[in-house]
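General statements about sequence and structure are easier to judge against a single worked case. When preparing material for the folding task, we compiled for one chain both its residues and its C-alpha cells. The amino acid sequence and the C-alpha cells for this protein are reproduced below:
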Amino acid sequence: MEKGICLVDHFVNKMTLGGELGWFVRDYNPSTGYQWRYLPDDSGRFDLVEEITLHPSTDAVGVPGFRIWKFKANRECKGSLIFELYPPGRQEPVQRLRVEIEVEK
C-alpha cells in the first residue's frame, strides 16, 4: 500500500525532502457541476505527481466521491499550493484554499 501525508488547509503541513508524497483530498460530486482546480506552482518547489478521481461503487445518481492530488517536494522550502472551486458555467471561483507546506531535509 502506498503511503502519503494528508495535506490540510487549516495549518502548516510538514513534509520531508525525499519522503512521502503529500495528498490533498476534496469531496467530489460531478452531478453538481462544481469543480476543484489546482493552480500549478511554477516555482519548482512542488510537483503534481498524480491526480485521481475516486467514484463510489454504486449506480445511485448524485453519490459523492473524492478528488486526490499527490505532490512531491523538490527542495527544502516554505511554500503553498492553491486550489479553487468553480461553479458550473462560471469563470470566477467561489472558494479558494491555500495549503501551506514546510519542507525539511
Summary: The radius of gyration is 15 Å. The chain has a mean pLDDT of 93. The chain has one domain: 4-104.
